[in-house]
Model the fold of this input.
Amino acid sequence: MSGAEDGVFVVGFQKRISERALTSNEREWIEFIRLASGDTDPPPTLERVQSLRRIF
Done:
């Protein structure tokens, strides 16, 4: 079982998405990311994760 197949893996943290349902806020964040990325599916690179973390 790998993060790519069953969940999310970001620099030492792995959480299986299927372990819990998405909240309405999480669905809105996904929609925002889709809009910001031009409705593409960019991989969560270290640089992208760090950029998002700086926002918060």
